Amino acid sequence: MMDRAIRTWVLLGVWAAGGISAAPADEGITPPIRIALQKVRAEFGGRLELENGYDSTNLAACRFEVQLVEFPGPDDPEGRRKAFFRRAFDGPDVPARGKGWLDLELPGNWKDADALVLAAFDPHREELWTWSWFVHDKDHYAEKYVTTEAEEAPGVEVVGAPNEIHLRAGPLVLRFAGNSGELVGVTLDDEPIAFGAGPKLIGGAAAPSRVSFSQTGEAVSLNVTYTGEMDYVRWQLCPTGWVRLDCQYELEGALQIFGIGFEYPQDRVRGVRWLGRGPDRAWKDRMKGEVLDIHSNTSEDRTPGLKRDVPEFKGYYCDWNWAILETDQGAITIVNATDDLFLGLHRADDGPDPRDTKPDTPDSGIAFLHGIPTIGSRFLKPEAPGPESEKNVAAGKYRTTVWLHFGGVEGQPRPANVRRRTARN
Q1: What DSSP element (H or E) covers 145?
Q2: CB 316 within 8 A of CB 342
Q3: Potential cystine with 378: which of 21, 139, 204, 266 (Cβ 3.0-4.6 Å)?
Q4: CB–CB of 367/261 below 8 Å?
Q5: Pick from 162, 197, 157, 152: which is nearest to 173 by CA?
């Protein structure tokens, strides 16, 4: 590998669903410094194992900068990430083609951060790569953003209706089919929201067998059990208007895509704002290179080959904590409490000449997925390049927990044990 990276971009065409010839732009360049860490776990001690891919450069000639950052929640529409710790330092003594360790020397309160960000710079002080990792599991962030109790919140009640069951909390009504427990639709302040027809199991089959109710504190739950590959679905409506959705299913075998999905009209969606990896969407064989931050995108037709605007809107998003779907019926806020869960926003459009980049997948609507499809390239079928391009192999039980809120959440109280941080010493 040459010590001075040469980056060459070749325009071969823009007809495929993945972008420029469906070439994986983020994987076409490999940084000369490689870090093996995939996820920050509880036992993380602030040291990173790394590999020097240079042919003749010692990493002591390079520079690094580490940051501990906090992100705003979905209740702060103007918020940006803020670093409360920053440290720049010389690289460790690791010879060319060697392996070694990078000591970040993090402060004792490093777990107060939302994410760890590390940038590497070559001997000429040009940025080589930036890595970023969330510090906590997803359920931590749900506890941070979602309020389930409030002193003046209305009670939750179950209301019968012809062929339907309604869960009501103040102005919010969740409408369920009486014989199946499927969400039919949502009403807020007597105005309909066309989110419903789910959850449907994607990649398997299931039939509802029993619908029941339960109560936990002030929250009321509608519980559905199934025959087939879905075990259960549980809807819990809290007096604050937050809705918790839990489900479990069991699948086996090779699948292009699997998870649960809901219907929502594409023409009502205006855009999305989310905290997670971006700004580009993901495919199973295209998940490297995206950074953790607050991203936004508008719902416009960006079919490859017809328009050159990027990033595309429809598709799959990875490593996300929350997302706000902006619609002409109001905001739909989703907070993720499940690790390794993808957010699906309808099916990506195929270009006019997709060739090998036309995934055999349905339009999954608004979906929460444990497996997403590969895309391949214009000249290679998805399964050809290697293991990352093979289909997902489902093996066992999968659980999904997300929180939903219909209508804006700006200004709503946070959980009592969480305070908004605006600065640190």
Answers
A1: helix 138-145
A2: yes
A3: 21
A4: yes
A5: 157
